[in-house]
Model the fold of this input.
Amino acid sequence: MIKLNFLGALGTIGASGLLVEYGANKIVIDYGVKVSDTPPSFPFEVKGIVTSAFLSHCHLDHSGALPLLLKRNNLDKIYSTKVTKELTELLLIDSIKVNREEGVELKFSEEDVEKTMKIFRYLEYGESLKLKNNVEVTFYDAGHIPGSAFVFMDLDGKHLLYTGDFNTEDTRLIKGCEKNLPEVDILITEGTYYDRNHPDRESQEKELVKIIRETLANDGITIVSGFAVGRIDELLLVLDKYGIDYPVYVDGMAKKAITIINKYQNFLKDPKSLDKALRKVEFITEDYQRKKVLKEPCVILTTSGMLKGGPVVWYLEKLYSRKNCSLVITGFQVEGTPGKKLLDTGYYINEKYGLNLKLKMGFKRLDFSSHVGRDNLIDFIKKLNPEKIYCVHSDNTEGLKEELEKQGFDAVAPSPENRFFNI
Ligand SMILES: [Zn+2]
Ligand SMILES: [Zn+2]
Done:
C-alpha cells in the first residue's frame, strides 16, 4: 500500500510538502514555508525517521523548511539538481536574514543550513535513483526555473508524478518542461494559474521594451522589479535581444543568483546567451553606486519581486515623484504585499520602512510568469491521462478539482482536514 500524507500547499500557495510511504521508504518531496505570512508558516510535521527527501526546485515555498527534517527526522540525504542545491543555500541564508530584520527568528540557524547543504546529493534530468522495495525515482525538467524538476516515482509498478512548479512554454532563458514522460497513474499537480491564460510572452517583452525606450527618450530611469532567481536573468536576455544600449544595472540578490545560474549553463536554453547579455551589465552593491547611477537615464533591474524589501525600496523612495521615470513589476503579486497594494491604489505603502508614497512615476505590471497557464495545464493533464489527480499549490484547489472533474478526471483537493490517502 502507498500512503500519501500531504503536508502543505493545501488550498493555498506556500509550505509545499508531501510524504510518500511505501515499504521501508518514508520519502518527503519538498518542504517549504509560506513566505507571505509573517512569521512564515511551516508545513505539517512528519513523525519519525524520513529515509530520503527530494527537492523539486529552490524557491522557499518548496525548500524553506528543509533544515527541520534534519533536526526532527534524522534525514541524511536530500536529492536535487546541482543548481537547485546552490540556489537553495542562497535563499535559505537570505530567509534567515530577512526574517531577523523583521524581528522573527526562524526555527533553524545558519549552522543548520550548513548541515543541510552537506547532505545534498545530485540527481540530473533523466537519471534514476533506486530505493528499497522496488522504488525508483527519476527527475524530469519542469521548465519553471533553471534546475526545476518533476519528481517521477515508480513505486513497484505504480507511477506517481509530482509536478512541483512547472511551465510548458519556453522562455528566453529556459526550455518548457519535458513532454515525453512515462505513463502516470497518480498525478500531484500545481494549479497556480488553473483559471487564467497568460498573454503571449513576446507581447510582454515588447511592452517592456516600449516602456524602457519611452522612459529613456524622456531622460528617465526605468526600474524593473523581479524575482531574484530566473526572472532578472530572463529580462537581461530580453534587453539584449532588443538591443537596449543604455546602461543596464542589476542590483540586489539577483547578482548572486545569476552568478550561480551562469555556472550551470547546461540548464539554459541557449548556453552562452547569459554570458553574452552579462557583458553589457554592471552590478551594483553599494549606496554610493546607487546615487551615481541615478544621475543619468538608465535601466535598473532589481529585487524584491513584490516590493517588500531589497534595493527596489531605496529606488522607489528616490524616484517616486519623477514623472519621467517608470516602474515595471514583472511577477505575481500576493495579496497584502506592497506590490499588490501599489497596483490596486497607486500608493507605495511599506510599513516596515515607514513609506506611504503616491507614485508620480509611471508603473505597470507585466506577466512574465514561470507557471503553466490554464489551457496548457489542461492539455498537459489530458496527455498524461492519470487515474487520479491531487490538486495542490493554488489559491483555489477546489476550483481546480472541479475544473478537472468537468474534463472527466477523478480529482481531489487535499485540505488540512483531509490530507491522508491510501492507494
Ligand atoms: Zn517556484
Ligand atoms: Zn511554488
